[in-house]
Model the fold of this input.
Amino acid sequence: MSSIDPSLSNRDLRPTGPQQRTWGFYNYTALWFSMCMEITTYRLASGLIANGMDWKQALGTVLLGNLIVLVPLLLNAHAGAKYGIPFPVFLRASFGVRGANIAALLRAVVACGWFGIQSWIGGSAIDAMLIVIWPGAAGNRGILWACFLGFWLLNMVVVWRGVESIRRLQAFGAPFMFVMAAALLIWVRVKAGSFGAMLSTPSRFHSTHEFLAVFFPSLTAMVGYWATLALNIPDFTRYSKSQSAQSWGQAFGLPVAMVLYTFLGIAVTSASAVLFGKPIWDPVQLIGMFRQPLVAFVAMVAVLVATLNVNIGANVVSPSNDFSNLYPRLISFRTGGLITGFLGLAMCPWKLLATPDSYIFGWLVGYSGLLGPVAGIMVCDYFFIRGTELDVNSLYHREGAYHYTKGVNPRALIALALGVGLALVGVWLPGLHFLYDYAWFVGFFTAGATYVAMMKFAAPVVPEERWSVVSDQ
Done:
């Protein structure tokens, strides 16, 4: 085995060894419960209620979307568990050792936006708690910004402590958040009087056409919500004890956690319509309206734990590796995490969360058109072109099997450009707006089919040898 190219690797990007394979079924189940049980998931469900769905329509939309995204997620997870490689290294097989940076940066930019969103939510929760305890703080933007920056700094501290601290945080956060979610549901049920009252908000749609006009872009948003993790799930499955541990843990954890927590968001938002005369989709605002310091304090602690959990797990691990992949000799996981944090500030997360429409139909649907094509190319390359066989050693060499043309696979870039262009063209051409409503699906299938067709005209890359680890000598 030849030595690796130091310009393509560092300690964080190399394949995991047996001593690092410590994640089992519970860890992956806990990972998804921790990432699902947080405020943006709640807002996802409550936003559907605010946009006119009744509880059955909203819950069905969420469940269907998550069952759909589970498929590419498990497919991409396979390579991480089999070879121990992170997402940006896995990308090199299809995009080339240099071209992978383009696709990785698309994922990284979206993660930075999410990092900013989660940090803003955490800061807002601290501010709301202070207002309940100290009413004089209401309307003070300086305090809000101080809370935001303080919570952002807390995230940076966890990032600096490394990946293992994330595993411990997830293991604690999952059961804690389950208990807090159950307590919030019971509390609101008592306030509303009955579950029937909580779920009594009717659908505002008077015809199937009206419902479908909201349903299809909402379904795309549900898929887009986890389109980020569907790409970089190898960053987590590379630590799996076995293929079955990660696959069963995720197949159970994602749909069950999403249904449970979105039901909470749906029920509480419906109850808010009964209690306050209008649906309140922001749980931080809702908790503050009860003006009970003890309730506010406990609820906000839960919000902070949940937000910290998902922000580190979903929005730091991947971009940190992606930025590290750009210049491995200078950018470590920690440095990549700091870059993520500062870019998250620059993306103005308070604007992305301004309304349900800007969050669901602007942010979620919009970026799904960027990530769907990447997922389509990755899945099709790994299963249809290579039959799940990778030459891991070549992933870390500029002259290996995945060098293509000067380190770039032009077929992958053409397929990516076509997929993204077709998915997002409806933003500028009203007559094709229906393509935007299905942005993730359009991008995934267009890019995947285009990639396979073009690769079939070229001689397939067949690994000369199979490697389970890469030498660092």
Observations:
- The longest helix spans residues 100-133.
- The two ends are 10 Å apart (CA to CA).
- Confidence is low (pLDDT under 50) at residues 463-473.
- The chain has one domain: 6-366.
